[in-house]
Every structure is written in structure tokens, then in C-alpha cells.
Design goal:
The protein has helices at 8-14, 29-36, 39-49, 67-77, 85-96, 113-134; strands spanning 53-56, 59-62, 99-100, 140-144, 156-161. The chain has 165 residues and is α+β, with helices and mostly antiparallel strands. The strands form 2 sheets. A 3-stranded antiparallel sheet has the order 3-5-4. It has a two-stranded antiparallel ribbon with strand order 1-2. β1 and β2 form a beta hairpin. The two termini are 21 Å apart. The mean pLDDT is 90.
Amino acid sequence: MTESYPVQSEVSDLIPELSLWNDGAGIDPESWICCSGNYELAIGYSFLFWPSFILIDDYVVRQGTTKEDIQEWEHALANEKGMSQEAKRESIEAVLNHIHLTDIHPEDSNPTEAQLRYLGNVLKQIYSVKLQADFPDRRFVVDFSEPPVTELRDYQLTFWQKRKE
């Protein structure tokens, strides 16, 4: 699971503003953060990049999910024929834990596919590590969907417990 960071030319494609600094000579991402970011943003992003997970009735979900949220989905799938109990639980976790990447900054209507793919793959790595650290006795599937998309909203990240092989 060791993926390297993009090379400088790819970084400039991901953050086009970098090349505008220093009279066109550019700037590296860390320096750009120092000039453009703030502590409130950094703290806000920490909740996305190192999330808190909780356990509710054997479901592992992102903090903020309630028992009522789970019960609504259990009720919705209660009469679903042909689905095992394990598959229902995996589906419920997957839907409750999904994040559309375009919802991170809904007012930014111009993310590129490359930006969303990069961010999604980084979040996938982070969530995999964090879930394993928080719940070492459980197995998870962390999925970042990279389909050929017609809409950028289709890029989403989710996870669920793998209950059976």
C-alpha cells in the first residue's frame, strides 16, 4: 500500500496555483500551505484526514452516525430477499460511511478528475491505516470508486467490515 507522492510536474497539475508564485518560478506545496492556509482549515481537514470511528451495535461507522441512522437502514433492508445478514450489514456500513468527494467543497464547481482521483486514493490509504489502528481485530474493505465517470459526483469513498470470506 505504499504509493509515492506525485512528481513536481504532477503536483503542479493537481495544484495549478503553485506555478503562479514567485514570478512564475513556482512554489512547493508546503510553502504554499504556509502562505495560503490557516490553522482553522488545518484543524477542519484533520477531521476528514484522520477521522474518528465509533462502534454501534457491531457496526463501525464515522463519528456522527447515530443508532437511529443504522436502524433506518436495517428497517429498509429487512425484507430484502436474497441478501444474507452479513451482506445487509456490509451494505448498511457502506452507505452510512460513504463520502462524495465533491461534497468536501460543494461550492468549488471546478475540481478536475485528476484532483479527485488523487484525493480519493490518499483518503483510501488514510482510512485503511486508521481503521486498522482503531480496530485491529476487524477486517475492512476501503473502497474508492474510480469508474469512468460522467459526473464528478460519482467519485466517492466508503468502507465496511468484511464479515466473511
